[in-house]
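Course assignment 3, question 2. Fill in each field.
Student: A.L.
Task: Predict the tertiary structure for the chain below.
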Amino acid sequence: MAKKILVIDDDPDLVEATSMILKSRHYDVIAAYGGVEGLEKARAENPDLIVLDVMMPDKDGYTVCKELKADPALNSIPVLLLTAVVSHISTTRYSHQMGMETEADDYMDKPVDPAELAKRIEVLLSRQ
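Answer field:
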């Protein structure tokens, strides 16, 4: 049975590109286009892994990650943060410290390399 991955990002193009990468590697992909929707889908779908954007307007990825890790029903799901924070650090309210305070299992800077994304996901899934 294919592993189920939830992709949460407010950028539809990034969701589509990430979904294509994951589907080509035979993962089932669920898409959510914001933090609130992502939390709802995480609870409804119980994915094997979550790929989570940081900078989203409704609920940022740091907050979503903290809520996921605080929920006993969801806290064992690996979370891979995708972030453009490094390149926007001086123009956003986000900081490296905020990222360090989450319990994310891994993070990658955007833009992501498809092969590296697949490799990191495989490593996280193998830990389960």
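Instructor remarks: The first strand starts at residue 4 and ends at 8. Residues 34 and 44 are 15 Å apart (CA to CA).
Grade: pending
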